[in-house]
Design a protein that fits this description.
The protein is an alpha+beta fold. Helices cover 42% and strands 15% of the residues. It contains 14 helices and 11 strands.
């Protein structure tokens, strides 16, 4: 048995030595017939299979061929010298079938290493595993194999397909991880000192409101606030606005659903009709509630948001801020109104401000005025007359609505829009900037 073992080992070494010589001499494909194995080494189909260890020795030598095409072709020609069907010839034939599959895996691995985008990965996978790929061609080649070899050949193709799919799945997972990493922010060095957070700043409307508050507080006025949801009586009836007035139309006022109940704003009921809730269109409602709750004399200012059905553009908004004032005392005249507002304007716009009163009409004041100013501190409108405040003496009907005796008490009221004043003072040309919450706009007032 030892002599047979040595004989087969010598045969294996002879085969690979001959294949190596053929490759180096460049004889493959040039018409020369490689030397045949010694006849004493030729196996017949009836010989027993290789002793233990010889098969592994042959497989080891086969793996040494790598991807050298010349060696494989030489091996195919040299193996022709073996007896057909012998164990060695079957192993070599199996190798010559399997090695292209191994090369296919190496080729896929090399190409996947150059793939960095998902579309490229899809294209690469289609080339190897698609309907026109080499794996599909091997499947079609099963029928050309001998019947007894087809099961083993099919198993090798399945193993090849599984190996390729694992390669592609692994690379896909890597690409997904790389994509997630690219979405992450840059790493943070936790040893660095933290950046100091930027200090916040007041909104320009808040700054202006506090500035106006301070002026009127020096004149003895107190601050009064109220709900932004009101009823028709407080917003219209108590302010001497008749039912047929255009402001009470649903096209001009935000009416809330009839069945809506607001706990802190009760509604009045007259017969079968209950008044509706609305979004207040002016802060004059705060003046009515204050007069109902307090006895004269009184001085209040009532800033807050109001709502009107205006189309949004550079100078109009459905939601803006109003600043109103009310002074009630004995023998209040237009002179008191003029002097109060003139002091306010000088404090706000400077001592060079000029003002004038133009007759106008408001349902809740009589007489009523539009107050125009001309000042060098109004930006693009400096030196021009600009309407800025509506004002007048409180109409006696308003006093009667709150049970003030108009024979004893008189007063004046005024109202201005905070956005309008802020646009003049800060040179803002679009009212929509106040509500866009754009940091680039807001930081200019830091």
């Amino acid at each position: 048995m030892s002599d047979e073992h040595e004989r087969r080992k010598a045969l294996i070494d002879h085969l690979f030595a001959q294949a190596e010589r053929n490759r180096r001499a460049g004889q493959v494909g040039e018409g020369e017939v490689p030397a045949q194995a010694p006849s004493s080494f030729a196996e017949s189909p009836s010989e027993a299979s290789s002793p233990e260890g010889l098969e592994e020795r042959l497989r080891s030598r086969l793996r040494q061929l790598g991807t050298d095409e010349g060696l494989r072709q030489s091996l195919a020609e040299v193996s022709a010298s073996l007896a057909p069907g012998s164990p060695l010839q079957r192993l070599i034939a199996q190798y010559l079938q399997e090695h292209p599959m191994e090369e296919l895996i190496d080729q896929a691995r090399q190409e996947l290493a150059t793939v960095h985008r998902r579309p490229d990965w899809e294209s690469c996978k289609a080339r190897f595993l698609g309907p026109q790929g080499p794996v599909r061609a091997l499947v079609k080649n099963i029928q050309s194999q001998a019947p007894e070899q087809r099961p083993a050949f099919g198993q090798r193709i399945n193993a090849l397909k599984t190996a390729l799919e694992e390669l592609f799945d692994h690379r896909r997972q890597e690409l997904e991880r790389e994509a997630r990493r690219r979405q992450l922010p840059p790493p943070i060095d936790l040893t660095l000192r933290p950046r100091l957070a930027a200090n916040g700043t007041l909104h320009p409307l808040t700054r202006l409101r506090r500035r106006i508050d301070a002026i009127f507080q020096r004149l003895g006025y107190s601050l009064a606030e109220g709900s932004e949801i009101e009823t028709e009586w407080f917003c219209f009836d108590a302010l001497n606005t008749p039912p047929e007035h255009p402001a009470r139309d649903e096209q001009d006022t935000f009416y809330l659903p009839r069945d809506l109940e607001v706990g802190n704003v009760p509604r009045r009921r007259e017969g079968d009709k209950t008044e509706r809730h609305i979004l207040r269109s002016q802060t004059s409602t705060v003046q009515i509630r204050t007069m109902l709750a307090e006895k004269p004399p009184l001085r209040i200012v009532s800033p807050g948001r109001v709502f009107r059905r205006d189309a949004n553009d550079a100078t109009h908004s459905a939601n803006f801020h109003q600043y109103e004032g009310l002074y009630v005392d004995r023998k209040v005249t237009v002179a008191d109104l003029r002097n109060t507002l003139f002091f306010f304007l000088q404090e706000l716009l400077g001592t060079q401000v000029q003002m004038r009163l133009r007759p106008s009409f408001f349902p809740f004041t009589e007489p009523s005025f539009e107050l125009d100013v001309c000042s060098p501190s109004l930006g693009k409108l400096s030196g021009q007359w600009v309407e800025i405040i509506g004002c007048g003496l409180v109409d006696p009907e308003v006093f009667r609505a709150v049970d003030y005796d108009p024979e004893q008490w008189t007063g004046f009221a005024f109202a201005l829009g905070l956005e309008r004043i802020a646009m003049f003072l800060y040179g803002i040309d679009d009212i929509r900037h106040f509500t866009r919450n754009d940091w680039r706009f807001l930081r200019q007032f830091a």
